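hiii so um. not sure if this is the right channel but i have a protein structure encoded as tokens and i wanna go backwards to a sequence. like what aa goes where. can anyone help
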């Protein structure tokens, strides 16, 4: 167990480098199961979720030859169709991404129900229906999913929703299924595009990348290769908010502007002062008065649900009344109760909507990190607050942000991590 202790009110300035995208790295790690050879992956964030995914892959026969300086080398020659370690699978929801590759290569897969953040109902029905459309049979009980598909068939698959992980799973299954598979209502997020491009590097034939209609021509096998992970757009957006609420002057390297159209629009609307330095560099300069705006999350290219919490924190420091509408996950606004403890003037209308009145001075408190994204948001709140804050359950934040306290210290923040012993 660990916690962060933060003294608020310190000005932020300098340069920060965005790590590789967690949401791109996890499916790309899973895609290595489609190959038999060596896969080299660059710009992999060294975070807990990645370490857990490596453990899951190793339980399937993958050998992690090295992981140093954000470069991961995997040897997949030992993958033989065995079941993954069920205890490790329960630690992260991304473990569900092993379904498509294992089904495509070995014709069957048994997976325990995956874990992850508690931000609302997250069924995998869309994944399972995609596999069934290709001829697989699916059954489940209270503990496991059992999927059989010895001879998958190419089909036109219409997803029930533009699910990121369902899209990724369906594409990975189709990559080794002979014939032409079409996937309609496919997700088009930058990290989904990153996976598709990686699969094509491995020898897959995927067209329509970045659109909601994908065409996959199945091939007999994929080869190991060397690939790159994109910078994390969620981390980049989090740094932008941190600089804005602290009236800082921060240059963010790895802020890919082409991935952040609506985020940039909302920063501009909120009166955040920024300059696009290059296609992957943004400078936030000292902002005098933030303005209230409305936020409504949506599938890409809409406003990302993973940045809803940081932007809500920004709105507590903005002049006027703001509204937040979370369309994706019904449990994602729970962190607002923690912000209210710190002095935020916010009201939950229901599980998906909130009203924020600002600006509100925040004060240091002991608060709890409820999930990955809200945990990072509470760090930003503590930076903004007067006095000292303690954020418990820091491990939750470690799941998605690499060296967050070290990066903050370099920008001038007062933050330290305290490890606590768990009672025997």
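sure thing!! here u go:
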């Amino acid at each position: 167990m660990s916690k962060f202790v933060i003294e608020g009110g310190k000005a932020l300035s300098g340069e920060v480098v965005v790590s590789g995208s967690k949401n791109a790295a996890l499916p790309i790690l899973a895609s290595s199961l489609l190959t038999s050879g060596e896969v080299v992956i660059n710009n992999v964030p060294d975070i807990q979720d990645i370490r857990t995914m490596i453990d899951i892959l190793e339980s399937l026969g993958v050998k992690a030859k090295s992981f140093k300086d954000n470069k991961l080398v995997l040897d997949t020659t030992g993958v033989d169709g065995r079941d993954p370690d069920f205890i490790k699978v329960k630690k992260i929801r991304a473990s569900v991404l092993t379904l498509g590759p294992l089904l495509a290569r070995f014709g069957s897969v048994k997976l325990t129900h995956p874990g992850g953040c508690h931000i609302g109902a997250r069924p995998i029905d869309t994944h399972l229906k995609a596999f069934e459309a290709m001829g697989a049979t699916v059954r489940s009980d209270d503990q496991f999913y059992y999927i059989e598909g010895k001879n998958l068939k190419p089909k036109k698959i219409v997803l029930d929703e533009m699910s990121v992980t369902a899209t990724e799973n369906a594409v990975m299954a189709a990559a080794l299924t002979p014939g032409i598979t079409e996937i309609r209502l496919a997700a088009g997020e930058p990290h989904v595009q990153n996976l598709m491009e990686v699969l094509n590097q491995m020898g897959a034939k995927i067209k329509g990348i970045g659109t909601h209609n994908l065409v996959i021509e199945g091939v007999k096998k994929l080869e190991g290769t060397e690939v790159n992970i994109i910078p994390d757009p969620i981390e980049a957006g989090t740094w932008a908010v941190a600089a804005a609420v602290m009236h800082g002057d921060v240059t963010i390297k790895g802020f890919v502007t082409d991935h952040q159209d609506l985020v940039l629009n909302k920063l501009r609307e909120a009166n955040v002062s920024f300059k696009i330095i290059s296609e992957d560099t943004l400078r936030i300069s000292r902002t005098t008065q933030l303005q209230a705006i409305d936020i409504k999350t949506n599938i890409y290219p809409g406003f990302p649900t993973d940045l809803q919490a940081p932007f809500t924190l920004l709105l507590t420091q903005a002049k006027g009344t703001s509204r937040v509408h979370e369309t994706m996950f019904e449990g994602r606004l729970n962190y607002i109760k923690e912000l209210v403890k710190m002095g935020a003037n916010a009201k939950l209308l229901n599980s998906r909507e909130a009203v924020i009145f600002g600006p509100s001075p925040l004060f240091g408190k002991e608060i709890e990190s409820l999930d990955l994204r809200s945990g990072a948001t509470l760090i930003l709140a503590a930076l903004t607050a007067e006095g000292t804050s303690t954020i418990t359950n820091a491990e939750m934040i470690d799941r998605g942000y690499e060296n967050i306290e070290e990066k903050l210290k370099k920008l001038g923040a007062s933050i330290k991590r305290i490890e606590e012993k768990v009672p025997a």
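oh and Residues 116-122 have pLDDT under 50 and may be disordered.
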